[in-house]
């Protein structure tokens, strides 16, 4: 500890202190001291200078000898020889002398001043000169040794002051000194270390620290892989992919050490780990551990996590990686425990080191969650496209989003990906609908509140409204007529569908109040939470246009086309679809479709009755061919296209006969034939063969004309 100021000497006031000490010319007992505000001035004033000077000098010598630190305030240097141990009674007496003159209250300030002067003048320049030698060192082992030597020198220079600090704390706790308190004094000293030594570090020093910790991290991870440090059980639990990945990390050359990248016969991994342990102990002793290592450790961990994640997780959606990375992070925490002396059998971990390690654990986990979520957000379009095979990736992303604040990042990224990769003229409407259905499934799994789906997929809904065939494709998917329409058809077949007739329940209709979950902050307050959560695929597709009438009318058109082109009365599939749609849209909306199906059943019955009557007629009165009609209720069917067609006379006669028979069955009703609709089965006899054809009425009329003529004259109509 630095000596106390002698008589006739002033202890210069350290920067930042609130009290001036004795200075040159301000001799104790010789008049008022202009710059001294300590109580010792008033106490010492008027006392014999000789008597007081002798007693104070003796007490000062005892205290300085016990502290065993530099003997000159202006030229701080370690003492060359050991100090004889003194008795506690001698030290007690010396401190009592200082207390009697109120000089004990300035010892702390005097100690801080000497330490600051020595740091600025001698210790800091010496340390940084040693670090500067790194520029002339090319080999990594030499650089590591140079770094360790520099910190060993720094510890050697600061140890006397730390020992003095321990004594000052002991005296303060014993009530022998007055000051700011032992804890505050220690904090001042440590702050001075950081402020003077490492306020601004050089690029060379940063490179040395980065290289040193990066190398020890790789060595530690390779040792963990091999089962060293009592971790064999962890290696046995590693998957085959883990082992392959760690082999990649260490390099595939069997002649080269995976830890230090040297030849195996020149491996210096044990030396590097020993130097690592020594440096950690020195930094811990000087309370510089986090100040020196935090930036390097943070950079290393971030880089390693990002590299491993790119190598292991990018493009892999069919399995979860969270548990695997949690195990790997525990390995990383093992290295951090070495850095912060929690895993050192020699040093006893204190509460501060334990708290530091806990902070680092939280930091590493948060960083992993944030980076992993960012990567999955970039890949979310592909994840949605591959759903449900990519469900593990969706679950991982959901877990990470609950621990990070990245919802807005997800929304903006997904919107941009959809607009760039999906919503353009080069993509078929059916493909857009298919991906939208996958998005509904995936984003519902990701966010049960459906807010992400509502916001991110709004561009899809707007774009689909601009496509002319959107409704047709959706209806075709519902009825199973579109390619790859299994999702919509299965959704329609659900046992407990969401009705679209009366809307969904309100938020007040929830049966159990404890089941209520608030919406995220980015939810639209104008929309019902329960309605959003209960929406299924069909209801979301129908809501694209805001009205179900478009879909009902489109389905009527599709149903009419199916019924008129199957050329039989089998409508079991259509009846099933109509019944399912009634559960969704309501019976009133599907009434027209029910009438259309009833027309098919009535047509079958009427045709059966007419055919039975024809069978009873004599052979000469029977029609030349069989005629089967589908009788439609014109008010309930979609408008049918009108075309003019001149049929052969025998066909007209058969139709007229059929109409008369119908009028007998249905009084006051008649038939209005659509000549261009239907199917005609013909046997065409050629010179060498007979063809059986099924053609439209137009083609049948043309063929029948050749029964009476070998050449048919066709004249073009007059056109303007």
How would you portray this structure in words?
The longest helix is centred in the first third of the chain and has 34 residues, at 140-173. The chain has a two-stranded antiparallel ribbon with strand order 1-2. The protein is rod-shaped, with a radius of gyration of 47 Å. Residues 1-52, 68-86, 228-248 and 502-510 have low confidence and may be disordered. With 720 residues, the protein is mainly alpha-helical. It contains 28 helices and 2 strands. It has helices at residues 40-44, 49-67, 88-100, 107-132, 140-173, 182-197, 203-226, 232-236, 240-250, 269-285, 289-312, 322-339, 351-378, 380-385, 391-401, 407-421, 429-446, 451-456, 458-465, 470-478, 486-492, 529-534, 537-542, 549-565, 572-585, 591-616, 649-665, 697-705, and strands at residues 680-685, 690-695. Among the domains are: 59-66 and 87-200, no CATH class; 549-678, no CATH class. Residues 241-251, 504-517 have a biased composition (Acidic residues). Pfam families: Cullin_AB, TPR_ANAPC2. One of its GO terms (biological process) is ubiquitin-dependent protein catabolic process. One of its GO terms (molecular function) is ubiquitin protein ligase binding.
């Amino acid at each position: 500890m630095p000596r106390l100021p002698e008589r006739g000497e002033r202890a210069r006031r350290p920067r930042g202190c609130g009290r001036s000490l004795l200075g040159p010319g301000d001799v104790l007992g010789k008049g008022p001291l202009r710059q001294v505000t300590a109580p010792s001035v008033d106490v010492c004033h008027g006392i014999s200078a000789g008597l007081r000077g002798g007693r104070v000098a003796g007490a000062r010598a005892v205290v300085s000898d016990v502290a065993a630190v530099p003997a000159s305030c202006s030229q701080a240097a370690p003492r060359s020889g050991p100090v004889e141990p003194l008795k506690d009674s001698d030290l007690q007496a010396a401190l009592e002398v200082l207390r009697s003159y109120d000089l004990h209250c300035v010892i702390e300030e005097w100690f801080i001043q000497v330490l600051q002067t020595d740091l600025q003048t001698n210790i800091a320049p010496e340390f940084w000169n040693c670090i500067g030698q790194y520029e002339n060192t090319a080999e990594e082992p030499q650089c590591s040794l140079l770094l360790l030597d520099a910190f060993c020198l720094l510890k050697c220079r600061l140890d006397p002051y730390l020992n003095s600090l321990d004594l000052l704390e002991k005296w303060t706790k014993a009530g022998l000194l007055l000051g700011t308190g032992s804890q505050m004094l220690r904090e001042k000293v440590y702050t001075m270390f950081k402020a003077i030594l490492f306020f601004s570090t050089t690029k060379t020093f940063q490179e040395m620290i980065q290289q040193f910790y990066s190398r020890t991290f790789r060595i530690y991870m390779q040792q963990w892989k091999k089962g060293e440090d009592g971790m064999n059980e962890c290696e046995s639990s590693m998957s085959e992919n883990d082992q392959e990945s760690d082999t990649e990390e260490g390099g595939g050359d069997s002649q080269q050490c995976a830890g230090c990248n040297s030849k195996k016969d020149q491996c210096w991994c044990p030396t590097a780990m020993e130097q690592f342990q020594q440096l950690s102990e020195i930094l811990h002793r000087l309370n510089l551990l986090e100040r020196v290592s935090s930036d390097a450790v943070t950079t290393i961990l971030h880089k390693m996590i990002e590299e491993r994640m790119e190598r292991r997780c990018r493009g892999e959606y069919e399995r979860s990686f969270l548990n695997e990375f949690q195990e790997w992070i525990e390995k990383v925490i093992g290295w951090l425990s070495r850095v912060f002396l929690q895993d050192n059998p020699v040093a006893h971990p204190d509460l501060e080191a334990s708290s530091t390690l806990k902070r680092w654990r939280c930091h590493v986990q948060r960083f992993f969650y944030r980076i992993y979520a960012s990567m999955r957000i970039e890949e979310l379009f592909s994840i949605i496209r591959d759903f449900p095979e990519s469900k593990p990736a969706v679950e991982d992303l959901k877990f990470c989003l609950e621990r990070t604040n990245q919802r807005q990042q997800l929304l903006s990224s997904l919107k941009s990906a959809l607009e760039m990769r999906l919503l353009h003229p080069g993509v078929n409407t059916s493909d857009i609908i298919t991906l939208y259905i996958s998005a509904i499934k995936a984003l519902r799994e990701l966010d049960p509140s459906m807010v992400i789906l509502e916001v991110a997929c709004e561009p899809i809904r707007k774009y689909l409204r601009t496509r002319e065939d959107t409704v047709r494709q959706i209806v075709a998917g519902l009825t199973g007529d579109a390619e790859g329409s299994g999702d919509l058809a299965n959704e329609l077949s659900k046992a407990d569908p969401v009705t679209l007739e009366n809307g969904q329940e309100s938020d007040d209709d929830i049966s159990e109040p404890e089941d209520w979950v608030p919406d995220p902050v980015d939810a639209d307050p104008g929309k019902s939470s329960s309605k959003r959560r209960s929406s299924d695929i069909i209801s979301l597709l129908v809501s694209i246009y805001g009205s179900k009438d478009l879909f009902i009318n489109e389905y009527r058109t599709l149903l009419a086309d199916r019924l008129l082109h199957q050329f039989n009365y089998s409508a079991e599939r259509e009846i099933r679809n109509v019944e399912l749609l009634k559960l969704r849209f309501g019976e009133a909306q599907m009434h027209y479709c029910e009438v259309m199906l009833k027309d098919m059943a009535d047509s079958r019955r009427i045709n059966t009755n007419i055919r039975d009557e024809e069978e009873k007629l004599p052979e000469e009165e029977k029609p030349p061919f069989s005629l089967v009609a589908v009788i439609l209720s014109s008010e309930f069917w979609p408008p049918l296209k009108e075309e003019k067609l001149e049929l052969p006379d025998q066909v007209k006669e058969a139709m007229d006969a059929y109409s008369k028979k119908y009028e007998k069955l249905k009084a006051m009703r008649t038939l209005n034939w659509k000549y261009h609709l239907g199917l005609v089965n013909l046997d065409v006899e050629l010179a060498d063969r007979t063809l059986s054809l099924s053609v439209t009425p137009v083609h049948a009329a043309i063929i029948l004309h050749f029964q009476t003529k070998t050449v048919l004259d066709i004249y073009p109509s007059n056109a303007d």
